[in-house]
Amino acid sequence: MSDFASQQNDFQRGILTGDESVLTEILDSPKEKREILFGVYKHAYGSRLVEAMRNDHKLLHGYLGDEMFDAMGHAYVAANPSQHPNLRWFSQALPDFLKSTEPYSDHPVLSDLAALEKALNDAFDAEDATVLTLADMAGFAPEAWADLRFRTHPSVFRLDLWTNASAIWLALKNDETPPDAVALQQPCHLLIWRQDVTPMFRDLGSEEAMMWNEAAGGIPFGVLCSMLATYDDPDGAAARGAGYLHGWVTARLLTGVSVGD
Amino acid sequence: MNVASKLRDSTAAARPGRPAPSAKPPFLGFGLGLRAQHYDEILNGNPPIDWFEVISENYMLPGGQPLRVLDRIRERYPVVMHGVSLSIASTAPPNFEYLQGLRDLARRVEPQWISDHLCWTGVHGKNLHDLLPIPYTREALDHVVSRVQLVQDYLGRAIVLENVSTYVQFNNSEMTEWEFLSELSRRSGCWLLFDVNNVYVSAFNHGYDPHAFLAGIPADRVVQFHMAGHSHMGTHIIDTHDHPVCEDVWELYVAALKRFGRVSTMIERDDNIPPLDELIVEVNLTREIAARVLPPPILHAR
Question: Domain total for chain A?
Fold first, then answer.
């Protein structure tokens, strides 16, 4: 390793681990000791990353308060050194961290709240795409509908939560006192997407959630209707399927439709 | 002794097959760093700002509102791209995925120039998201020159590099920061972004005269000034960009104008971001001081 590379290695290790062997390579200033001056970099590292997490997870920050959020943030920073040049992606693993790390894993609502905020952040700057319109759909003959397959907008994300995190999110967003966290007997099916420039989400019933998942996986409309028929009145399955589809098109959730494979 | 002047030469122009050095970027006037808090006001009011500098990484995204806003601002104002993650002085291999993202954004924005910092941000696959200092050694200079040439070849244009605020100095440095920057610019063909505040901060922290820095930089290589605020800790200064420009930095700006002449200048605020009007007052002050210091034929020449 070159001297230059070795020096960068020592400097980075000093910031990440507190090993201060790099101090033998740097100078005191006329007014301050090198320990204090190197400490500027050590302090800036953690505080800058936690600040980025506060920006990405404003409502989780509000829910936990400064002290708990920052303690959690520094634990995340220690466990997940940034590997991406863009700070935008630093907190992507936060929901998984909260789900798998004590004491946060004892409170599943924290992971759910982080997952919802992450999904909204991801929708905000997801890829742009031209959306499907009702006029596009009207161009297909009735006999072609059974074979229609759909492409979903890049900003759309499906999330199943087993806590009331979405109700807590809404209360925090409206500056209201959030309800107590509770575990749900049945999952809450959320659909998150961006409408124009604004990220949003809504609850889906279990039937519509199933249809969305399968449609996004490329299952054609005719098969989707057969699947719907196993959930509720079989005679109304096609009408329910068409209704869900109408809602997705008007909410600008689809970007393409094709016939056949 | 100027050690840098005795170093072997490997200028971009001296290499066969390498493109001719880029023409010097144009004078843009007096600008401001674009921040999301001001999007609506800028788009609705077309404020009298000559140009905007954008943080490249804030727009190296798949899509959505940030890129749409940038497109609209680009239709009305000249734009310069300023990055924080190029890590040009890192001894780790370059991040080519990052470079590709930077090139893609440049194709969309068509900026007047692309700048970043003379620093490194991490090694071993990690990113510390800070502008970390380097030793001013011959070895480091050779390394950074070769990296700048590679990046310039990749982007197809000369880049602009900024002096950073530093809090430590290495005991193996063989030249001053200004000697290092001057040689880097001469050998690689990159242009220089002279951050007036950073010179002030580093000069205070390391106990040298900021005017020696000014005098040591070749005037014809400087294409941009940054003006910003900082936080004074008594024994050292931290470059926080969360305050208005202080009196001492305004004085150094006057000296920089006298040394470098007419240079595209901008106000850079990254934290405690005030209403746009307050920043426009500072932008106007950069303009007024330049008008006072520089003879009109120089300030208004095309």
Answer: 1
Give the model's confidence band at B270: pLDDT under 50 very low, under 70 low, under 90 confident, else very high: confident
Residues of the domain holding B294: 3-300
- Min distance B59 CA to chain A CA atoms (Å): 9
Residue A56 lies in a domain: yes
Q: For residue range B96-141, what is the model confidence (pLDDT) as tens digits?
A: 999 999 999 999 999 999 999 999 999 999 999 999 999 999 999 9
Classify B228 in phi/psi space as left (phi over 0), alpha (psi -120 to 50) or beta: beta
Cα A130 to the center of its chain, rounded Å: 22
Q: How many residues does chain B have?
A: 302
Helices and strands (DSSP H and E) totals, chain A: 10, 5
- The count of structural domains within chain B is 1
Identify which of A4, A11, A37 has the shortest CB distance to residue B139. A4
- A143 within domain boundaries: no
Minimal CA separation from B297 to chain A, in Å: 43
**Residue A10 in this model has a pLDDT that exceeds 60:** yes
What does the pLDDT look like over A104-148, one tens digit per residue? Answer: 999 999 999 999 999 999 999 999 999 999 999 999 998 999 999
∠ Cα B107 B111 B115 (to 5°): 105
**Is A201 a domain residue?**
no
List phi, psi (to 5°) of B158.
-70, 145
What is the pTM (predicted TM-score) of this model? 0.92
A71 domain residue, yes or no: yes
User: Which among B63, B139, B236 has CB closest to A128?
Assistant: B63
The DSSP H or E segment spanning B299 is: helix B296-300
Amino acid A193 reads: W
Q: What is the CATH number of the domain that holds B274?
A: 3.20.20.150
pLDDT tens-digit series, residues A28-42: 999 999 999 999 999
Which residues constitute the domain of residue A56? Answer: 1-106
Q: Is A157 helix (H, G, I), strand (E, B) or coil?
A: strand
Give the Cα separation of B98 and A186 in Å (integer): 42
